[in-house]
Amino acid sequence: MKYSREQECEKRNMGIELMRQNGSSHILNIDADEFYDKDQFEYAIDVIEDKGWNITYWSYVNYYRDFDHYLVYPFRPFVPGIHSTFFKYTYQGPAPGPTDPTRRIANPAKLGEYIFRNDEIRMGHAAWIRRDIRKKLENWSAKNHFEQQVLEDAVERWENWKEGENAIMLFNVPDYNVRVNKLEKRIHKFDVPWMKKGES
């Protein structure tokens, strides 16, 4: 039986193939907790159409608890952007930087590849904006890489987090600690309805 993340990669490729058979030339493979600003996204589409890029990557902002706080990684995280349905993913394959291992585009010749700057577009990742963070982490396909105590520590910190504290991450960072910064100005123009109402 294949590891859960390898299965996830195969499912993503099935989606690409279905879109290709349906006549789609390009695809954006996203998860349910990934969002884009409308203006940034329209700009990216215009650039891709104008330049004819087959493959794009861009960075993302990993929000923590709300859309005013974000995780400060010691590297620039990437995610595949819009790309041609000619290209599929390869699990743990090469990428221009730290990227989700389930969607690394198989492109050994680096054909038509463009990496967008942060001031052009960034995906908004709401993985850590949840009503119940434990439910998210216990259903995460990569959770088996981490000891149960790390998961417990991450949940406890998230539930009791205070301004100025680090987050505890299930991620490949030193001591599982990541700094949390507060934005002076929002990057993305969206909210979670239940957060706006002040629900918990």
Characterise this structure.
This protein is an alpha+beta fold. It folds into 2 domains: 121 residues, no CATH class; 56 residues, no CATH class. It contains 5 helices and 9 strands, in the order αββαβββββααββα. Strands 1, 2, 3, 4, 5, 6, 7, 8 and 9 form a 9-stranded mixed β-sheet that branches. Strand 3 and strand 4 form a beta hairpin. The termini are far apart. The mean pLDDT is 89.
Can you describe this structure in just a few lines?
The chain is an alpha+beta fold and 200 residues long.
Which spans have pLDDT < 50 for at least 5 consecutive residues? none
Largest sheet: 9 strands, mixed
Count up the helices.
5
* Number of E-type strands: 9
Estimate what percentage of residues fall within beta strands: 15-25%
Structure classification:
alpha+beta
**For the residues shown, what is the average pLDDT?**
89
Question: What is the string of helix and strand elements?
Answer: HEEHEEEEEHHEEH
Give the termini separation: 39 Å
Counted up, domains total 2
Shape: globular
Helix content: 25-40%
- The Rg value, from CA coordinates, equals 18 Å
Keywords:
2 domains; 9-stranded mixed β-sheet; 200 residues
List the helices and strands and how they pair.
Layout: H1 4-21, E1 26-27, E2 34-35, H2 38-51, E3 55-64, E4 66-72, E5 78-84, E6 113-115, E7 122-128, H3 133-138, H4 148-160, E8 167-168, E9 177-182, H5 193-196
Parallel strand pairs: 3-6, 3-7
Antiparallel strand pairs: 1-5, 2-7, 3-4, 3-5, 4-9, 8-9
